[in-house]
Design brief:
Shape: elongated
Distance between the termini: 94 Å
Oligomer: single chain
Largest sheet: 10 strands, mixed
Helix content: 10-25%
Number of helices: 1
Radius of gyration: 29 Å
CATH topology of the domain at 53-181: Immunoglobulin-like
Number of strands: 10
Strand content: 35-45%
Length: 189
């Protein structure tokens, strides 16, 4: 008897609550919402380049600071479109040609056409470092690096486009997508 009464009371309460909710939605006055405006209204959005991108760079001088080798590279996007997530891997070798250590520099975000930026590559110092090789890549393809004598220094911005990691480079899923420059530089002393 008590179970039947509890079920009947629950059904009656649910029905009253449902009627009250329906009454509230029909009796409220319609509110006017402002029209939707696009966040990108009036702005030109160029998608990042796919495939091979052209990049100009100035030959940097690696410097030893403590137990790290710091390479600050000035680069400029020479492509018609922005370059997404530019990555430069620097692999160091000993005099016998064996791999000793590696570092990586990355620009998180987009490097706009004609934009100049500085990428800092931090590589752990290891005994026997004598020469290195750089590999360039971006999120959507390969990089064609072109060495130039001089680039204007980048203008300082409020949010840094360049980030660095001191972690050694690891093998990538697409090693064929990067272009290497010859190892002609010697290690800092």
């Amino acid at each position: 008897m008590h179970a039947r009464f509890a079920i009947a009371a629950s059904i009656a309460a649910a029905a009253l609550l449902g009627v009250e909710l329906i009454a509230q939605t029909t009796t409220t006055s319609p509110q006017t919402t402002p029209p939707m405006t696009s966040v990108l209204a009036g702005k030109k959005l160029t998608p990042p380049i796919r495939g091979e991108a052209a990049l100009e760079w100035v030959d940097p001088k690696p410097e030893k600071k403590g137990d790290m080798v710091i390479t600050k590279m000035t680069v400029r996007n020479a492509s018609a479109g922005p370059i997404a997530r530019l990555t430069i891997n620097e692999t160091w070798y000993n005099k016998a040609g064996a791999n000793v250590t590696a570092g990586r520099g990355v620009i998180n975000g987009l490097l706009q056409p004609g934009e100049v930026a500085v990428i800092e590559i931090q590589t752990p110092w290891k005994e026997g470092m004598s020469g290195f090789q750089r590999q360039y890549a971006h999120a959507n393809g390969t990089i064609k690096p072109v060495k130039v004598q001089k680039l204007d220094a980048p203008k300082p911005t409020t949010d840094s486009a360049t980030t660095t990691t001191g972690k050694p480079a690891t093998t990538t899923a697409k090693p064929a997508t990067s272009t290497a420059t010859p190892a002609t530089t010697t290690a800092p002393k």
